[in-house]
Please model this.
Amino acid sequence: MDSETERVAAFAEQFRKVRLAAGRPTLAAIINAVGQGRGRSPLSDSTLSGWLRGKSVPSDATLFLSVIEYLLAKAPDFPLRSLAQWERLRTAAEIQKSSRRGRPRRSPTLAEPSMIGLPRPPTQPFAGREVELAQLDCDVRRSGHRVTVIHGLSGTGKTELALQYAARNRDRHPVVWFSTADSADAIAAGLARLARWLTRQRSGTAEADLTEWALRWLQEHDRWLLILDDVGSRAAVEDVLGNLVRGHILITTRRDLSWGGFVHGWVCCTDR
Ligand SMILES: Nc1ncnc2c1ncn2[C@@H]1O[C@H](COP(=O)(O)OP(=O)(O)O)[C@@H](O)[C@H]1O
Ligand SMILES: [Mg+2]
Model:
């Protein structure tokens, strides 16, 4: 077996193993459990059995990771627990499949979940903030809570808290992205960088097109985390908030803004 075939085989083998460890649920049970979210590619018996036999590789990372989350919840002892590792397996197999077919992929592949989406690694040692981290955790888990504001004076540790949260919960969010958000332009530039990262595109496309592409991508996928750092006004983020109803947005701000119905969770960052 050449190393390229091995990647698809390794993917299929792990996928079969996790299903076995989960008590070998039927394909119908898996399909039923993950549901069919809006904008998702359809999941059918034949799609799933193609993945299990190494005949095909999932092209929709979000859909695949929700299948994995379902199986892992039923297989508490299965060693491969990190969604980032599963995403790496999938990406490696997908790249192999498409290059073997000798033609480019139709849509850009999701890049590996990575800290590259953050401007710097979180500070170590990080002191305290257990309550705030637990609050964020609770907000993100609760369904319907999709925009959380971290509010506090300058220097109280808002940005740091967002970075720590993102780093500690990487497995929950296949894509984590950070953008400065003191103006609408800064956010547009941040989203354009996200598009470049997801498509691995270095140059050649106008920033406005990239921004639009990123917004569309965020509209079509779940479970991403977007940090909008240092928001200066509601007007700067209104467009983004109004257009995105999936994934989670974490806003940090020094300003006491009136958010109307846009915000679902609050964390107050007071002096440590
Ligand atoms: N809980 C913490 N433990 C250790 N260092 C922290 C903590 N919170 C913040 N810091 C550090 O304090 C400084 C200010 O924090 P920052 O997040 O930039 O504040 P803000 O975004 O509220 O202006 C940064 O250098 C950050 O790394
Ligand atoms: Mg800050």
Summary: Residues 61 and 247 are 14 Å apart (CA to CA).
